[in-house]
């Protein structure tokens, strides 16, 4: 796909996003991220984590996602994307590179995270389409 071309996708209509948003309506005020995630089933937990990542990266990049405490499960999220399609595999690769960047002993490289954020933005909606195709029917 030409990197200058983007499909017009309303991600809010995709099953994986609807699942995440339904779950988030059940988050109680003052409930911590880990506490909330722990009470969700695996498909829902991963959908919520993917949605949080998408929201954070699109508004402030991977640096914001990390600074706000959402990057704790980067490796798990990368594994969730693997094998679900071309765009999902690319997101998984981006997430592995984000993880390596965040683990650098000198601290995160902000220019590297910015480049990865821009790379993610180009394919994120298409990856959500692929994630939705692999969501168990019971969760749609």
TrEMBL record:
Gene3D superfamilies: 1.20.1420.60. Pfam families: DMP19 (PF14300). Residues 39-107 form the DNA mimic protein DMP19 C-terminal domain. It comes from Deinococcus hopiensis KR-140. InterPro entries: DMP19_C. It comes from the Bacteria. This is DNA mimic protein DMP19 C-terminal domain-containing protein.
């Amino acid at each position: 796909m030409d990197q200058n071309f983007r499909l017009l996708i309303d991600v809010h209509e995709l099953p994986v996003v609807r699942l995440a948003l339904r779950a988030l309506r059940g988050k109680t005020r003052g409930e911590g991220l880990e506490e909330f995630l722990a009470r969700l089933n695996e498909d829902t937990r991963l959908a919520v984590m993917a949605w949080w990542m998408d929201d954070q990266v699109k508004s402030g990049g991977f640096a914001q996602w990390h600074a706000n405490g959402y990057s704790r499960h980067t490796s798990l999220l990368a594994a969730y994307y693997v094998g679900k399609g071309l765009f999902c595999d690319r997101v998984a690769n981006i997430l592995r590179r984000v993880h390596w960047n965040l683990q650098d002993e000198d601290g995160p490289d902000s220019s590297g995270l910015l480049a990865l954020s821009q790379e993610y933005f180009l394919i994120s909606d298409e990856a959500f389409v692929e994630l939705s195709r692999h969501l168990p029917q019971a969760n749609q």
